[in-house]
Specification:
It comes from Amphritea atlantica. This protein has 73 residues and is mainly α. It is built from four helices and no strands.
């Protein structure tokens, strides 16, 4: 995947995280985001966002970072 695709994944992960901030508990919010990513993202998408988190991750919102960190391989 190229930089454009990575930017799209970052944007989507942040949007999903932003849409799940209504609970008020960061741990539960991150779990909801991780669950969503696990269910609806392709393995290649999850791998690329995990790689991004490990190499930089600076553009991910805190909840998105926690969620991506929870993703299995």
């Amino acid at each position: 995947m190229g930089q454009y695709q990575l930017n799209s994944l970052i944007k989507m992960a942040n949007q999903i995280a932003a849409n799940n901030t209504h609970i008020g508990d960061e741990t539960a919010e991150a779990a909801m985001v991780a669950n969503h990513l696990s269910k609806f993202w392709a393995r290649s998408m999850k791998a690329q966002i995990r790689d991004y988190l490990e190499s930089d991750g600076s553009e991910l919102l805190p909840i998105a970072k926690k969620a991506v960190a929870q993703l299995g391989s």
